[in-house]
Design brief:
It is found in: Endomembrane system. It is a multi-pass membrane protein. Its main location: membrane. The chain contains 18 helices and no strands. With about 425 residues, the protein is mostly helical. It has one domain: MFS general substrate transporter like domains (Growth Hormone, Chain: A, Up-down Bundle). The chain is globular and about 55 Å long. About 55% of the residues are buried.
Length: about 425
């Protein structure tokens, strides 16, 4: 049984990386890019969607390969450290994106690199779960991690709102200067620095106190050769892993629906309901509260009843909230159904991670979570792509957001055929 310090440190990595999702890809920088940099919410949404599609393709190609290589090399921390550092650096670089269309290409390049590195770090992070805790605690610890992650996003958003977006001057009165002295919309651009610092600081406990897998003694080139060979053998003999395959395909669809909502939720709130940055951040704070509560609340159900029932309940709940949300015209109803939708985000994601950990054969966690990333991204670029195409075709963000319903329905239907391993 691992120490409590190791489990807490593992969960804190979710707390750390949540800053990137909440600040950069969902609620602040994506909205700033569309409104401030591009200057047209519809065009900005389409360009952001195209960048997320490019990132998704890169993640799909790299994640299973690197996961298999890490399984052969043994250690995962060096890979996580590399990709965490890349994410932090390219997130910080967003500070230099001015509210000028000329900076749009630089902004998207930084976001694509940071997003790819972020997702690859998570491949190795998730793969450490089966070796960290016994099977009877997989659902609980996975749920705790997701829940703590949402509350980490909440804390970061509160700090962004109070200390940056609404503050008349930089936090702590840095150098006695006003935001205007730092350039146009400096208070918004500085939230990227906050996200980078938050991620780097709170990721440290993971690297200090979570035990790594033992090294196999294989050099990088040998691990790469054997990893590629193992991955190809797994793909050739896919029938041996039939239940894994069913789950990977089913989860790819519903995860794409969730990822599309989280990636474009801030843009939808800003463009359709005219929310300001301050209102979007307040909404995001409320959303993180209910999402974190949902992830932690369903964690015990995962260990008691299984991950599959949790996933099915979460998908049914998200679908039931999405339909009236898309039809809402008043902000009150938007808030009610959006928070209801958020309640089921965490359980679906946490239970998916714990089920993948249970299905992964011994010694193949990295490869399997790499394939988890592959299937998610193989289908995953369709979400942003369809969102962007529908938004442009109908000149409506509602039409773009409606595409997620198809992903939830397909994921639910395919998930019914997945058999959870004996507990």
């Amino acid at each position: 049984m691992p120490s409590r310090r190791a489990i807490v440190s593992w969960c804190l990595y979710d707390w750390a990386n949540s800053a990137y999702n909440t600040i950069v890809t969902t609620f602040v920088f994506s909205v700033y890019f569309a409104r401030g940099v591009v200057g047209d919410p519809v065009e900005g949404t389409a360009r952001w969607s195209a960048a997320m599609t490019v990132a998704g393709v890169a993640i799909a190609l790299l994640s299973p390969l690197l996961g298999a290589v890490a399984d052969r090399a043994g250690r995962r921390k060096p890979w996580m450290a590399l990709f965490t550092l890349v994410t932090v650096l390219f997130t910080a670089a967003l500070w230099w994106v001015r509210p000028d269309p000329a900076d749009a290409a630089f902004a998207l390049a930084c976001v694509v690199v940071a997003t790819v590195a972020f997702e690859l770090a998570n491949v190795f992070y998730n793969a450490t779960l089966p070796g960290l805790v016994p099977a009877r605690l997989l659902g609980r610890v996975s749920g705790w991690g997701w829940g703590i992650g949402y509350f980490g996003g909440l804390a970061c958003l509160v700090l962004a709102l109070v200390g940056f977006v609404q503050a008349p001057a930089p936090l702590f009165g840095l150098f006695g200067m006003e935001w205007a002295d730092w350039g146009q919309q400096a208070n918004i651009r500085a939230t990227a620095l906050l996200a980078a610092a938050w991620y780097g600081l709170f990721a440290l406990p993971y690297f200090l106190w979570v035990p790594d897998e033992p090294a196999t003694g294989h050099g990088l080139l040998r691990a790469a050769r054997e990893g590629v060979a193992t991955l190809l053998a797994t793909l050739r003999h896919a029938r041996r892993y039939r239940e894994v395959g069913r789950f990977l395909i089913a989860s790819a669809f519903y995860r794409d629906g969730i990822n599309t909502i989280t990636a474009f939720g801030g843009l939808f709130a800003a463009g359709t309901f005219g929310m300001s940055f301050e209102e979007i951040l307040v909404f995001a704070i409320a959303l993180n509260v209910v999402a974190g509560a949902g992830a932690i609340g369903f964690a015990w159900m995962d260990d008691r009843a299984g991950a599959k029932p949790v996933i099915l309940i979460a998908l049914a709940g998200m679908t039931a909230c999405s339909v009236p949300l898309l039809l809402a015209t008043e902000r009150l109803w938007f808030w009610i159904f959006a928070l209801g939708l958020g309640l089921f985000f965490g359980p679906a994601q946490a239970a998916g991670r714990s089920m993948m950990a249970r299905l992964a054969p011994p010694g193949m966690a990295g490869e399997m979570f790499g394939l988890y990333g592959l299937t998610g991204r193989f289908v995953g670029f369709f979400g942003p792509l369809l969102f962007g195409l529908a938004t442009q075709a109908f000149a409506s963000q509602r039409a773009g957001m409606a595409t997620v319903l198809a992903f939830f329905a397909i994921g639910f239907g395919l998930m019914l055929a997945v058999r959870e391993p004996a507990r």
